[in-house]
Amino acid sequence: MADITRREGSISRRERDPFSQMQELMGWDPFEAMTQLLGGGRGAVPSFVPAFEVKETKDAFIFKADLPGVQEKDLEISLTGDRLVVSGKRESEKREENERYFAFERSFGSFSRAFTLPEGVDSEHIAADLKDGVLNLTLPKKPEVQPKRIKVGASGNVGGDKPKA
Could you tell me the superkingdom of the organism this chain comes from (predicted)? Predict the structure, then answer.
């Protein structure tokens, strides 16, 4: 028992406090950790990486992206074959020399996200809308690839024989 007490005495209060440990875990940012690994160092602002949501409905693929502070003029969307690319930039705000920041966590810069789409996207009727910092992309499916409901017994006779009158 005395051995445990001695080791516990050498551990800092912060390491023993479960609330401090939880606070540290909750504040962990994997993107900041990657920036540090890639040479950005502490205090470097990571580049802007928007979050996307992609879902499929029976007649379209729906993409939503959080792009706060991105303007339409700074956004480019392209479709080449089955490759959808969304790229753009979020400009950094002007910082005055005499301003003192206590936290500077917002990220800025260029981004590019690419998605490989399944066959059957109707590239002639894609709709894009940027409203309240959210990009909505609707990529409709071609009618021939949309699911069709088949009724049981609707085909008539099986085997090709004509019904007898």
Answer: Bacteria
One of 2.60.40.790, 2.60.40.2230, 1.10.10.10, 3.90.1210.10 is the CATH number of 48-92+101-145, namely 2.60.40.790
Residue 121 per-residue DSSP state: B
| Cβ-based neighbours of 46, under 8 Å, separated by 6 or more | 31, 32, 34, 35, 40, 107
- What residues contact 74, with CB distance under 8 A and at least 6 apart? 88, 89, 90, 91
Span 12-62, pLDDT tens digits: 554 567 766 766 777 666 666 666 555 554 444 457 889 999 999 989 999
CB contact set of 67 (below 8 Å; sequence gap of 6+):
50, 75, 88, 90, 130, 133, 134, 135
For 87, the enclosing helix (H) or strand (E) is strand 83-90
- Which residue bears the tokens 């379209």? 60
pLDDT in tens, 92-110: 878 778 888 777 777 888 9
AA identity, residue 65 = A
- Is 135 in contact with 76 (CB distance < 8 Å)? no
